[in-house]
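Re: your question from the hallway

Yes, I did run it. Sequences:
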Amino acid sequence: MKPERLPGPDAAMTHDVIVIGAGPAGMAAAATAAGLGLRTVVLDEQPSAGGQIYRDVGRVVAEQPRVAQLLGADYTHGVSLVQALERSTAERRLGTLVWDVARDLTVTVLQEGRAAQLHAPQLIAATGAMERASPIPGWTLPGVMNAGAAQIALKSAGAVPAGRIVLAGAGPLLLLVACQLLAAGAAPAAVVETAPAGNRLAALRHAGGALRAWSYLAKGLKMMRRLRAARVPWFTRAENLRVTGTDRAAGLAFVAAGRAQELAADTVLLHHGVVPNTQLSRLLHVHHVWSDEQLAWQVVVDAHGQTSLPGLRVAGDGVSIAGALAAEASGTLAALGAAHALGRIDARELARRSAPFEQALKAEQQIRPFLDALYRPPRFIAEPADETLVCRCEEVTAGRVREMARLGCQGPNQTKFFSRCGMGPCQGRMCGTVVSQILAAEHGKGVAEVGAYRIRAPLKPVPLAALASLAGAAPAETAASSSDKEDVT
Ligand SMILES: Cc1cc2nc3c(=O)[nH]c(=O)nc-3n(C[C@H](O)[C@H](O)[C@H](O)COP(=O)(O)OP(=O)(O)OC[C@H]3O[C@@H](n4cnc5c(N)ncnc54)[C@H](O)[C@@H]3O)c2cc1C
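Structure:
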């Protein structure tokens, strides 16, 4: 293992605060930190600020008002955050991929083909969420995408998939994308919901919190009414999903209300909720917990996003899934925490400034238990059939993962070592959650006991030339990450 370099007076600090991610959490964090006079930089691999929900919002509102209108007020709200960031003194480095962070908080980036390193005593990771994998037979065929990917095409290129579109899965984003496609003139051929029957009863237990967040309920009902009014065929409690077709998707087969269905489709959009993107927090070995409610790993943080690694804060959906407005509040709280840690505000000022954002965060979190229960993914997503591919990069099936468990692999890292599952370019980002779930079920243990993939840099593939461009600067610390090299649990 490489010796750790801890932040101290000897380390050359390029900034006071580095924020990774320019979604609602990152934009709010950067504008707040800069507003308190801290030398702040915000990094994002995307070419414009906005994150997932407000992707490219500045350009879309200015240049494509029709697209902005159909994406709705929840989307255009992002303009105010982008403008606040632009007005602030925070340095914006967009089109900048963070591919390594050392435990001394040195951040290594790839910008315009070259690698560079930044260093600050306070680092706020606001790297957001990603869509949960939906491993069903045929999900790797051309013509199958995540529903969020179709939304990205709409936001960034004003494009919709051609032909017949079938959406399948569970979650508010599924309905939102269906409505957005409808508004864009690409009426879905069907919506196939997979949420099991028991979900409604489980959700009712959280009706109190949901009623206090009635505006979200109203939005949900409005989306359902819109799809019903457009007579979009709607199936519920679907099981045994399978994408049909040999070279590309030709349709979706499933069973609903005891009847086998097969719908023709040119594009199948899958969605089973979003999970925190924990690659960076895993790389830094901070404490995580498994949430049985969200069926996902969450980062353990205090009220100001502080993790178990001093100086590293995590904000937004990268901690736990709570939505864009919660992300905005938690980004602000993380920046206030950073300002306090750096001595810019005292404890009293921290408490005074934090109070409204803590309240906002709490209010936004009220609906979560209801949504988590209502849209809990069906078991066949967590424990796919043996023949289903789970690791797309290395083409490893669920059956092979089970075989690894039977051969004695106790966790995902051993499984990776012996089967290459999770060893491809995505570094297990896609399959990590489901591999841990399969192993846990096979061993009759909890997911927390089985653990998660150990993550190593680079977080995403980087060209060798970029590594070489660092060589002059810090030879011993270029290609290697601070994470240890051991790969087997
Ligand atoms: C595909 C998708 C679509 C969504 N659409 C909606 C929607 O329409 N409505 C809604 O209410 N919610 C939506 N959500 C949920 C939504 O993401 C969140 O509630 C909200 O955007 C979370 O904000 P955030 O700031 O935590 O993260 P995000 O908005 O996700 O921002 C994270 C940012 O970090 C950047 N980043 C991540 N890793 C790196 C790295 N290594 N280097 C550099 N930059 C990095 C990303 O490029 C991104 O811009 C969507 C989620 C997904 C996954």
